[in-house]
Amino acid sequence: MSLTQKEVAHYAFLARIELDEAATAALTEDINALLVHLKHIGELDLDGVEPMTHATALVNVTRSDERRDSLPPNLVFKNAPAHEGNAFLVPRIGSGTEGGA
Amino acid sequence: MADTRLTEALERYEAVIGLEIHTEITVTQTKMFCGCPVAFGGEPNTRTCPTCLGHPGALPVPNEEAIAWTVLAGLATACTIAPWSQFHRKNYFYPDMPANYQISQFEPPFCADGRLDIELTENADERLDVATAANCTPLDEADRAGGYRATIGITRLHLEEDTGKMNHIGGADGRIAGATHSLVDFNRAGTPLMELVTEPDIRTPEEARAFARKLRLIWLSLGVSDCNMEEGSMRVDANISIRPRGVREFGTKTELKNMNSFKGIHDGLAYEIIRQAAVLDEGGTVVQETRHWDASAKVTSAMRSKETADDYRYFPEPDTVPFEFSSAYVDAIAARLPELPDARRERITDTFGLSMHDAGVLAVDTEMLAFFEETVAAAGVEVEGIEVKGVAQAVINLMLNDLAAHLNAEDVTLAACRITPAHIAELVVLVNEDTISSKQAKEVFAEMAASGELPTAIVEARGLKQVSDTGELEAIVDTLIAAHEDKVAEYRAGKTGLLGFFVGQVMRETGGQANPKVVNEILAAKLA
Predict the structure, then answer these.
(1) Number of folded domains in chain B?
(2) Domain final residue, candidates B301, B334, B367
(3) Is B224 in the same domain as B264?
(4) CB contact under 8 A, A88 and B64
(5) What is the distance in angstroms between the Cα of A6 and the nearest Cα belonging to chain B?
(6) B295, B318, B334: which is the final residue of a domain?
(7) Residue B59: pLDDT above 60?
C-alpha cells in the first residue's frame, strides 16, 4: 500500500495543516517509507488475532455520576485568544460549512 | 387527508426515509466525560472544565450512569447489547468542539439491530402499499379503521458527547451567512447524547413523525431524557431519497436538519419529497447535500457539503478503555425496564375494557392514568368485574371530554386544577344510579370545576335530584293527558312525533328534573 501525493494533500487539508507542494512531495515519500514496515505485518498470518486498540488490557473504566466543581470564569478564558462577555469569540467561519457533527 | 401535491408525488415516487435521532440524557447529574453538571441554559461557560473545554492533557472518564441509561434505552427498543464495545474519536474542525474531535462510537455501538412498531391513524393514506408491504399490517380495531401498523428497523443506538452551542453574530436570523464572528458556549458540550439511527424503512412523512413521537414516549417512560424538542434535548434529522415506483435502486439522498418539532418533521419531509419529485420530473438530478428546514418560510435550503464518513477518520479513543458488558450486567439493567407504552395500553384495555384509542391516551400520560385508576377505584367498583367497564367508560368520557376541555379552557394542569378523582367518581356514581341526568351532570361539572365543591353537595344545595319516582311522574302525566285531550287524540291517530311535546311538558312541570327514561316509559304506556 502506498499513498499518492493527492491523498496526502487531502489528509493535510482535513487536519488543517498547510503544506506547500515540495513539503507534500517529501512527506508522501516519508509516509510511503513507513508504510513499507506495515506491509511486513500484513505478510504475517494474523487469522484469529483480534485487532488491538489499546496498549493495556483494562476494560470498563468509568466514574460514578458525581459532580465536581467547574472552572471559575477567570480560568475558563485564560487560554482563549478572545472572548466576549462569558462566551468564547471565534472569527467568522468560512463559507460552505455550517453545523458540526 | 394528505396534501394533494404530496399524494401526487407519492403516487409516482416512493420515498425512502431513515432517521437519525439525537437525545440528550438529561437524567444524569453530570456530563459524559467530566463532573460538570448537566442542565439547560444558564450563564454561558459556567458549567465547563478542562475536559469539556478540550484542553490537552485532560482525561475524559466515562459516566457509568450514562452508559447504563443507554443500555436501558437499547433494551427498550429491542436492540441487542454489544458484549464488547468502545468509544471512537470522530475528527472534524468546527468551533463547537474545542478538541477538534467528538468522542463518539463507530463499530460496534453499545446497542444495535432493534426495532420499533408504530401505528398510523392520521394521514395513513400517505402510504399506498399497506396491503403488500412486508413491514405493514392493517389495524383491524374498530376505532382505528384505515390505519396500519409498521415495523421500523433500528440500525444502531450509540452514546457520544454533545457539542457546544454557537451563536453567529452580525448575520440575518443568527445564520452563519453574513456573520462577522461567532460566540461559543460550552455549557452543553459534553452532555451525554444518544444517537439512534433507523433503517431506511420509513416511506412517508407521517411514518417519520409517528416514529419520533413513539420514540419520545418510550424515552419519557424510561425517564432518560426530558425530550424537549424546543430546547434541543431531542433532535431529529432525516435522510431522504425518492425512487420511481417499482424501481429497487435507491435515489440520491439529501439530509434534512432543523426539523425541531413534530410538525416540522412531517412538513419538512413532505416538502423535500415534492421538491425532489419536481427535480426528477424536469430530468434533473438530486444533489447529495444537507438541507435546512425553515419552518416559517416552509422551504428547505442547502446548508453545506458534508464531509464523508471516511473524512471523519474515526479511530479508537485512546483516552478511554473498551467495555465488556456481561450478561449479568445487562440483566440487571433489564430488570429496571418500566412498563412501556404498548404493554401499558394493552393492560388498560384488558383491565378496564376501554377502546385502544382511549387506553392509548392513558398509556402515554402517567398523570392521567393515575387519576383514572384512582377515580375508578373511588367509584367503588371491583376491577375486573363486569360493571367496571361501564364505570370505566363513563370515567374516561368525563376525563377526555369535560375535564380535558376544562383544563384547556383554564390553561391549568391536572395536578393544579380543583377537580380530584373523588369529584369525578361521585359524579359518575350519581349518573350511574340515576340520581341526576347526564344533562344535569354537565351543570354539576361546571360548578364543581369552579368551586371545588363535591358533586353530592352541589346536587343537595341546588335541589338537582332527578325525579325517578314513578308515582309522582304518573300523576303529572295523568294531569297532562287530561289537559291536552286534542293532542292525545292526534298522537293516537298516528302523529307519534307529539311524544316530544309530552316529554317537554313533564320536564317543565318538574323543573327539568324528571328522569327522561322513566318519563318515556310512562308516556308510552299511558298514551298507547
Answers:
(1) 3
(2) B334
(3) yes
(4) no
(5) 14
(6) B334
(7) yes
